Amino acid sequence: MGVVVNIEGGKRENASIEAMIALTRADMGRVNELILSRAGSDVEMIPEVANHLISSGGKRLRPMLTLAAAQMFGYKGDGHVKLATSVEFMHTATLLHDDVVDESDLRRGKRTARMIWGNQASVLVGDFLLGQAFRMMVDVGSLEALDILSAAASVIAEGEVMQLGVAKNLETTEDDYLAVIKAKTAALFSAAAEVGPIVAGASRTDRAALRSYGTNLGLAFQLIDDALDYGGNAEDLGKNVGDDFREGKVTLPVILSYRRGTAEEREFWKSAIENDQTDDDSLERAKKLMAKHGAIGDTIGRARHFGEIARDALAPLPQTPQKQAMLDVIDFCISRVN
Amino acid sequence: MGVVVNIEGGKRENASIEAMIALTRADMGRVNELILSRAGSDVEMIPEVANHLISSGGKRLRPMLTLAAAQMFGYKGDGHVKLATSVEFMHTATLLHDDVVDESDLRRGKRTARMIWGNQASVLVGDFLLGQAFRMMVDVGSLEALDILSAAASVIAEGEVMQLGVAKNLETTEDDYLAVIKAKTAALFSAAAEVGPIVAGASRTDRAALRSYGTNLGLAFQLIDDALDYGGNAEDLGKNVGDDFREGKVTLPVILSYRRGTAEEREFWKSAIENDQTDDDSLERAKKLMAKHGAIGDTIGRARHFGEIARDALAPLPQTPQKQAMLDVIDFCISRVN
C-alpha cells in the first residue's frame, strides 16, 4: 500500500479557516472590489455569467493563500491584491470550462452557467476571465510571478486533458491519479502560495517552502474532495453526493476499491464506471464496497500524508500569525470529512 | 450609406504575400520549430490535437506580421520569434474554442478537432495553448508586449461573446457588426503588428503606426472573409461557401441586403437567419438578393476603405522591404475576392 499514515488523527484543535479569514479580511475586501470591476464589460453577458459564478459562494481559499503568503514576508504594496484576484479569475475560468467539459448541470447546488447561458458563453467568458487575469498580472509587473502563474495555466489544462484520458478507465493507477490532481488542482494552490513571497521579494528558500506547502495542501484538498463525493455533508461539499460516480470519474476511492476487490466486485465496477450503470442502487453498492475495503478511510489517510508534508514545508519559517493560519488551513481541509 | 469608396479599384500590381513570405522565411522556420516544441506535452492527446490544427495549412499571416514588424525596426534578437509563436498559439486557441462555440464540423475542408477528439479536448487544448502562449511572452520579458497581448486576449473573448449576442439577430447594425469584428479579428492583427516595434524598442509613434495598420488590415481581412462566404473560391476560402448562412451568422452582406430589402425580402431573411431555413435553395436566393442590392460589392468596398487607412498608417515610415511587403499584404487580402 506504500504510504503508511495515521488515520486515527482526529480533528486538530485549530481545524478552522477563521484565522486565515481574519488576517486577510481587509485585503479580501479589495480583492472582491477588483473582481467586480475586472469582470465588468460593456458586453452585458460577460458580467452576468462571471457574477453568477463569482457570487456562488466559494470560500476563496486560493486568493487568501496569496494574500497571507505576501503578508508573511512583510509585503506592503498592493500587488498581492491583484495577484490574488488573478488567481481567483484563473480558478473561475477553469470552473466555467470544467462544467462544459463535464456537462455538469449543478455546481454548489446552483444551476451551472452553461445550463443558463449555454456552453458557448461558458467557454468564452472563461477565456475573457483568463485574459483579464493575465492583464492584472502584467499590471503588477513581476516577471517572476507571471512566469509561475502562466506555467500553472498550462499545467492545469494539461491536467484536465490527462483527466479525460483516465475517465472511465479502471486501469488507472494511484500514481496516474496523483499526476492528474497534482496538475489540475495542486498547481494553482502552489502558484497561489508562491507568488506571495515573490511579490514580497522573499528568498528562494522561502519561495520553495510556500510552493511546497501549496502543492501538498492542494493534493490533500482534492483527495478530501474526492472522499466527500461518496459521503460528505452536501452543504460542505457544494455538490451532490455521487456526482463523481455518476460521471464515471475514476477517483482514489474507486481506484482503491477496484484494486482491492474480488473478481465479482471488479465486474460491478466495470458495469458502473465503464458502462454507466450508476443508478442509486449502484451508488449504494459502491459505498458499501468502499466501506468494506476501507477506501474512504485510506483516501483520507493519503490526504493526511500530504497535509503533513505541507506542514513540514512551513516548519523552518518564523512563527507568525500567517504561518499559524496556513497550518490551520491544512487541518481545516482535512477535517471537512470528519 | 456613409462610407464612399472606389470599388472599381481592381487588383494592384503587388497583390501578393510573396514578398512577406520571402522576408520572413528564415524566422518562420524558427517559429515553426517553436510551435512544434511548445505544443508538445507528455499528455499524448495535446500534441495530437494541436498538430491537427497547426498542420491544417493556414497562411500564418499573423506571426509573419510580428516578424516583419520587428525586422522593420532593425531588431536583431530572438524575442520576435517567441512573440510570433505566441500570436499563432493565441490564434489557434481561438479557432479550437470557436469550433466548439459554432458547433463546426469542418475547417479548411478537414474535420474539426472537436469532431475527432470531442468538444472537451478542443476546449482544454485551447486552454493549454493559451497558457503556453503566455509562457513564451514571459520568456521574452517585455512587460509592454505582455500588456498588449494580454489585453488582446480579453478583447478577442469579448468580441466572441458579442458575436453570440448578434447571432441570428437581423436588427444588428453595421456599427454593431464592426464592433464585433474589431474585437474578434482586428485586435489580434493589431497586437501582432504592434509587438514588433515594441520588442525592437521603436518609438511610440512607430508603435501607433503599426497598431493602426494591424487594426485596419484585420477589419479588411474579416470583411473579405465574410464576402467570400457568399461566393468565394473554396480553395482560397478554407471553408465551404454558405457556412455563415447555414449558421445564421449576421455578417455585413446580410446586414446590407436586409436593410436595403423590400418587406417581402426581409421576411425571407427572417425565415432564413432567424428560423434556420437555410437549405440550398435559400442560399441561392440569398446570393441573388445580395447581387440585387450590391451587398457583396459594397462589403468589398468597405474592406477597401479600411485597407486605405492601413496603407496611410504606414505612409510616414521609411520605404523598407518590410513596409512594401506589408502594403502588398493589404492588397493581397482584398484581392482574394476578385
UniProtKB/TrEMBL annotation, chains A, B:
E.C. number(s) listed in UniProt: 2.5.1.90
Cofactor: Mg(2+)
Keywords: Magnesium, Metal-binding, Transferase
Enzyme class: transferase
Enzymatic reactions: 5 isopentenyl diphosphate + (2E,6E)-farnesyl diphosphate = all-trans-octaprenyl diphosphate + 5 diphosphate
GO biological process: isoprenoid biosynthetic process
Gene3D superfamilies listed in its UniProt record: Farnesyl Diphosphate Synthase
UniProt-listed InterPro entries: Isoprenoid_synthase_dom_sf, Polyprenyl_synt, Polyprenyl_synt_CS
Domain of life of the organism encoding this protein: Bacteria
Entry's Gene Ontology molecular function annotations: all-trans-octaprenyl-diphosphate synthase activity; metal ion binding
Described purpose of this protein according to its UniProt entry: Supplies octaprenyl diphosphate, the precursor for the side chain of the isoprenoid quinones ubiquinone and menaquinone.
UniProt cross-references to PANTHER family, sorted A to Z: ALL TRANS-POLYPRENYL-DIPHOSPHATE SYNTHASE PDSS1, GERANYLGERANYL PYROPHOSPHATE SYNTHASE
Family according to the record: Belongs to the FPP/GGPP synthase family.
Record protein name field: Octaprenyl diphosphate synthase
